[in-house]
Amino acid sequence: MALPSSASAARLRLLTVPALLLLLSSAALLVFLVLPSLSPSSSATSGHLCACSPPSTHTTTTVTTTTTTASPAPVTTSPADVAWLKAQLESNSLLAGGAAASHDAWHRLRKGINPRTREQQLFDINRHHGISHYPDEEASNHTALPCPGELLVEEHHSNYGEPWAGGRDVFEFLANASALTPTDQVLEIGCGTLRVGLHFIRYLDAARFHCLERDELSLMAALRYELPAQGLLYKRPMIVRGEDMDFSKFGDTVMYDLIYASAVFLHIPDKLVWTGLERLAGKLRPQRGRIFVSHNIKFCSRLGGDECTRQLAKLGLEYVGKHTHDSLLFNHYEIWFEFRRPKV
Predict the structure, then answer these.
(1) Per-residue pLDDT tens for 275-301?
(2) Residue 85, in any domain of the structure
(3) Would you say residue 81 lies in a domain?
(4) 238-241 and 209-213: which strand pairing?
(5) Are 280 and 247 in contact (CB under 8 A)?
(6) Are 340 and 291 within 8 A, CB to CB?
(7) Which InterPro entries match (predicted)?
(8) Count of Cβ atoms closer than 10 Å to residue 326 Cβ
(9) What is the pTM of this model?
(10) CA distance 141 to 40
(11) pLDDT tens per residue, range 64-104
């Protein structure tokens, strides 16, 4: 057999090198594809061979979750809460005596704060409308619920004889004394600007708070400022303007677990109070339901003890007892009188 010439050998080398590279690449690819099938899969440990079906393009992950129910917020400030706050005040050296020595001393504490009275705030709002505002008329601006300046500076917080914070005291007492739950139905006679009602609305489920109020300014403050400002519009309380103890707008079938009048019956003629009790007695849940009246019950005591008892029994009510409740923040206590509807 004749040997190839040098030119033929060169051509052979040129052809052999690419072929060799191609051969090596094919071998490497074959090893890459074959080795995974030869190695044990995770399913082999459980006695099953790996599936030969094409892999899915989607991955499904199963996550196990544990559902926990949050405990409801406590109604009453506990002794541990009070002790904690006192410790915070002490550690920050804040007003050890509870108040500054004088009115001037109080304002000196404000240092970099720009102190303005409500009257000054109202003047600035009416004149300047704030730092940045739309120059258009109220009807065409971007404010969803334009509010009167008097309400924005919270003038209505000074419309009552006690500090606004006293509303929390009333709520705490009534909620505990009536063993209130969020699903209960509550009626306040004379809720005013919601100094007390806000706490009930926040605690109760939606649409569980009813109120009858006669004062227009108080209703404006409650509906146009307090509910939107407190983020409680979603609770949908039913607040009705009315007087003469007319509860017809609340419906004929509603049953109340708690009815209360905070310093309201003092300003209503005795005859009208009895009219209201007569209309509400059948709407109070038997046994569990409670009516609470604050300050005094002269509408009852003026009749004399025996006669009052007879009048209450005629309405299907009975007097339970008298309570006092201390304020958390100021030197004051509230007197409450409790009534109920015996089992029918």
Answers:
(1) 999 999 999 999 999 999 999 999 999
(2) no
(3) no
(4) parallel
(5) yes
(6) yes
(7) SAM-dependent_MTases_sf
(8) 11
(9) 0.75
(10) 71
(11) 555 566 677 889 999 999 999 989 988 888 865 666 667 77
